[in-house]
Write a structure and sequence with these properties.
Strand content: 35-45%
Number of helices: 5
Largest sheet: 9 strands, mixed
CATH architecture: Beta Barrel
Low-confidence stretches: 240-246
Radius of gyration: 18 Å
CATH topology: Thrombin, subunit H
Shape: globular
CATH class: Mainly Beta
Mean pLDDT: 91
Distance between the termini: 42 Å
Helix content: 10-25%
Number of domains: 1
Length: 277
């Protein structure tokens, strides 16, 4: 399989996380984020705090590479003890973002004589203020992950879903660095990257523009549910699939923390490394 188009490359930006904690096992999504500073590149896995909270151990895998292309269906598994401790969370306890340095993992893979295939979401895909001002009140979005843990286990491919923005991207919903999407967000999609992906052309405020547009908007965290009393509440997109007694119905609204919160988390960690050198 050749990986040439934007859409094809995005299929290799995510990993499926499996966790074990005292409550059982769960699944979630993480994605590879590339931050560049002063000609240095820093690779991270990014997910939600609630995905790895309390995790005794964690597992994820990459597709093996022949040096140039992915070896579809051939995987390299990673298992980590004290999984939660491997992650660094955003300092604000309310911001559901956590990152883990990826380079040490890749170095361990290389020591075992293996090469894995991956692509990353680079920080320059985060909209600039000018690009953000160009975005309309309603934009189509895509997100990539593992709903209910589902993935193509034969070819090791994630699931891609579509939706639209449900609140304006230029505004912080409820004064917080997040926005809502109108989409079906299920357990396992926590940690999924949310992007605008237009290839060939797109509508820009009523005018058709020729060309490609790829913008990284943020990370899925929570889903809106309606309880039996009719109340609406946002809960973290569940990692564990367990029976519940009270009636809850998902209403196809998801919370997405803006990409700026990921950039803040990464910059804090990189600054700590720089000061320690």
């Amino acid at each position: 399989m050749q990986v040439n188009t934007i859409a094809e490359q995005l299929l290799f930006t995510t990993v499926r996380i499996e966790t074990t904690n005292p409550d059982g096992t769960g699944t979630g999504t993480a994605f590879i984020f590339n931050y560049q500073q002063e000609e240095k590149q820093y690779l991270f896995l990014v997910t939600n705090k609630h995905v790895i909270r309390g995790a005794i151990d964690g597992r994820f895998f990459f597709t093996l590479s022949d040096g140039q292309s992915p070896q579809i269906g051939q995987r390299f598994d990673i298992q980590m003890n004290k999984f939660e401790q491997q992650w660094f969370g955003h300092p604000d306890p309310e911001i559901d973002v956590a990152v883990m340095p990826l380079v040490p993992v890749l170095q361990q893979i290389q020591k075992k004589g293996k090469t894995v295939f991956y692509k990353s979401i680079t920080h320059n895909l985060i909209p600039t203020p000018e690009q953000m001002n160009d975005l309309d009140a309603i934009e189509e979005v895509v997100f990539i992950g593992y709903p209910n843990g589902i993935f193509d286990s034969k070819n090791l491919m994630p699931v891609v879903r579509r939706g639209t923005t449900a609140t304006h991207l230029q505004l912080d919903y409820e004064g917080k660095p997040l926005f809502l999407i109108d989409a079906s967000v299920f357990p396992g999609l926590s940690g999924s990257p949310v992007l605008i992906v237009n290839t060939g052309g797109y509508s820009h405020k009523g005018v058709f523009e020729v060309g490609n547009r790829v913008l990284f908007l943020g990370i899925i965290s929570s889903v809106a549910i309606r309880e039996e009393q009719g109340q609406i509440a946002f809960i973290s997109s569940p990692v564990f699939q367990v029976p519940i007694v009270r009636t809850q119905q998902m209403i196809d609204l998801g919370i997405v923390y803006k990409a700026s919160t990921i950039l803040e988390t990464v910059k804090i960690l990189v600054d700590k490394w720089s000061k320690s050198q």
